[in-house]
Amino acid sequence: MRVLSRFMAAATDAAQFPVPSLPEIAFLGRSNVGKSSVINSLVGTKMARTSSTPGRTRSINFFEIRWPGKPRPELIFADLPGYGYAKISREISREWPKFIEPYLNDRPTLGLCVVLVDANLPPQPSDRQLLDFLGSSDREFLLVATKSDRLSNNQLHNALRTLTQEHPAARLLAFSAKTGAGRDELWKHIRQAAQQMTTPETSSG
Ligand code: GTP
Ligand code: MG
C-alpha cells in the first residue's frame, strides 16, 4: 500500500506545534536507530531526512498522511529528534524540556508512541528511561526492534527474547526499513491506534 504524505511543520518550540486535529503517531528512539527511515518505509517515499550521522533530526517534524482516494488526511506522523548519543545528547537534552517533554506530556491527539530500539544492540539505559516515562504517563506505546536485516534469524530471535525480558509489558515487533519486514504489522498497529482515537466516546462535558 502506498499512502500520500505531506510535510506540515518543523517544531522546536511548543508554540510551533500544529493545532491538534488528527490522531498522531510519534516515532521515538535513540539517535540513528532509524526513526526517519521507518517513516519513509511506511509511506513509501523519502519524505523524512535520514543520515548515517546521528543527530540528523533536530525538530519534531509533522507529516500528514492520506490514503489514495480519500478526500482528507487521516493521520499525522511525528518524527522526533533522537536521544542517547553522548556528543549530541547534551545539546539536545537541553532542548527536550522546551518542546519534547511538552509534546509527550500534553499533546491531546497523540495516540501511539512507536519506540524504536536497535535489534543489534543490547538493551540501552536511555531506552529504558523513555519506556518508564511512557509507562508512567499512560501513553499507548509499541516497541519496534529496527535494522532486523542485519541479524540472522537466530540472532534476531535471541534479540527479541532479550527485549521481551527487559520490557515484559511492551508489545514488540521486528522491523527492517531495508527489506520491509514488519511493515504491514506496524501499519496494522498504527491504524488500530488511530481508529481507537476516532471512535466516539461518551463525554460528560
Ligand atoms: P536521528 O534523526 O539522527 O535521530 O536518526 P534516525 O533515528 O532518524 O535514523 P535514520 O532513519 O536517519 O537512520 C540512521 C541510519 O541507519 C541511516 O544510515 C539508515 O540508512 C540506517 N538504517 C535505518 N533503518 C535501517 C534498517 O532497517 N536496516 C539497515 N541496515 N539500516 C538502516
Ligand atoms: Mg531522524
List keywords for this structure.
5 helices; globular; binds magnesium ion; seven-stranded mixed β-sheet; 205 residues; binds guanosine-5'-triphosphate
Topology of helices and strands:
Elements (H helix, E strand, L loop, with lengths): L3 E8 L12 E6 L5 H9 L16 E7 L8 E5 L6 H21 L3 E9 L6 H12 L4 E6 L6 H14 L5 E3 L8 H16 L7
The structure holds guanosine-5'-triphosphate and magnesium ion (MG).
Mind explaining what this structure looks like?
By secondary structure, the chain is an alpha/beta fold. The protein has helices spanning 35-43, 86-106, 125-136, 153-166, 183-198; strands spanning 4-11, 24-29, 60-66, 75-79, 110-118, 141-146, 172-174. A seven-stranded mixed beta sheet has the order 1-3-4-2-5-6-7, with helices on both faces. The protein is globular and about 45 Å long. The model has no long low-confidence stretch (mean pLDDT 89). Guanosine-5'-triphosphate binds at residues 29, 31-37, 50-52, 54-57, 81-82, 146-147, 149-150, 176-178.
